[in-house]
Amino acid sequence: MPLQEDVDVQTSLKLLIVLSKAYKSIMDKAVKDIKNYGLSASEFGIMDVLHKKGKIPIQQIGGKILITSGTMTFNIDKLENKGLIRRIPSTEDRRVIHAEITEAGEELFTRIFPQHASSIHGMMNVLTTDQKLEAIALLKLLGKGAHSYDNET
């Protein structure tokens, strides 16, 4: 009979695999949906931040959607070339550049977001609302635990 510690380790490994596969399945479908609107996932994320927050420094956007500064600059350039956002130099600090969604960007985002949200809801709808809330709480706990774990000890 296996020791409880061995069972716990195997269960942790299984959880990582199941979590990874679920994340990949959901993100593959979400990215495919976003591409239907002519945007990359990063572009969509940037527009979402600007739609919700308004004009903000470009440097702050990356932290909100977890992309690097190089990826940020590339995607900001693409969105600006499409006329969906604009760069605005700061009047207080010339090192700071703000990004702001344009009228055309706002129109596009408000048109596509409900469709995208519906697609995400369809994928998540295999769970009840209570199960979704429980999953959110458990995943937050798991993330905090992983963040505070120090395997050097």
UniProtKB/TrEMBL annotation:
The keyword DNA-binding applies. The keyword Transcription applies. Keywords: DNA-binding, Transcription, Transcription regulation. InterPro entries: HTH_MarR-typ, WH-like_DNA-bd_sf, WH_DNA-bd_sf. This is MarR family transcriptional regulator. SUPFAM superfamilies: Winged helix' DNA-binding domain. Signal peptide: none annotated. Pfam families: MarR. Residues 12-147 form the HTH marR-type domain. SMART domains: HTH_MARR.
